[in-house]
Specification:
alpha/beta
């Protein structure tokens, strides 16, 4: 089976994107037994940190992504089948490099040599409709978009859909997911009712506690958020496999 690439993207921050990236990568590795690589493209490195990984001394992912061997930057996590390509400080200048790139599929080409090693590659990209985001869209087989049940997040999703229609002849499918959803709020409840087919990840203290425990939800006690993550991954896996 060929390697499948899942991209997590949001035009705006604060929607739980990185927590989803970490949890889905862990689910891919443990729930589906897939050889999984999480690629942390966000200079803040939150996904890297949550999985208790540090970039190697002197690591410059920016330079390697521009045309080098990525394999010796990749590090194992404490979980079977799950590796990380850590973010490092060099990624702050990656957008500047991309401005001078001629190739529209630069990122896809950079990831190509890893296909013999991984079944699933999960990309965590910083928010914003940037050149890096466009590169990620061209590399992905599926784009998962976390949406807080609110008008601003719905507007950001509409902007993304319009952008993809304008920029790509055959964009990858989008998979919107309600994130940080609190059904006690009338606004959230109404938004969820309008899109009953979208998966829902509830607002939960267990997700916030990841910053303290630094472990994915499915690695801890069962709770509603962990079960929602497991169900979401099963849906994503079906789409990627097909």
């Amino acid at each position: 089976m060929p390697t499948r690439i899942l991209a997590l993207f949001s035009a705006k921050g604060g929607v739980g994107k990185t927590a989803l990236a970490v949890n889905l990568a862990h689910a891919a590795a443990t729930q589906s037994g897939r050889r999984t690589l999480l690629v942390d493209l966000d200079p803040q490195g939150a996904a890297t940190w949550l999985l208790r990984v540090e970039p190697r001394d002197g690591a410059k992912a920016r330079k390697r992504l521009g045309g080098g061997d990525l394999t010796d930057l990749i590090q194992p996590t404490g979980f079977d089948n799950l590796d990380v390509l850590p973010a490092d400080r060099s990624l702050r200048r990656l957008e500047g490099d991309l401005a001078g790139q001629d190739s529209e599929k630069w990122l896809k080409k950079a990831l190509k040599p890893l296909e013999d090693h991984y079944d699933r590659v999960i990309l965590d990209c910083p928010p914003g409709l940037t050149e890096l985001a466009d590169q990620m869209f061209r590399a992905a087989d599926l784009i998962l978009v976390p949406v807080v049940p609110s008008p601003l997040s719905a507007r950001a999703l509409a902007q993304l859909q319009s952008h993809l229609a304008d920029e790509m002849r055959s964009p990858p499918p989008l998979m919107p997911v309600f994130s940080l959803a609190d059904r006690r709020k009338s606004l959230h409840k109404a938004a969820i009712a309008l899109q009953p087919s979208w998966p829902v990840i509830p607002y939960a203290s267990a997700i916030e506690a990841m910053a303290a425990s630094r472990q994915p939800l499915l690695a801890g006690p069962s709770n509603p958020a962990a079960r929602a993550i497991g169900s979401l991954w099963a849906d994503v896996e079906r789409r990627l496999a097909n």
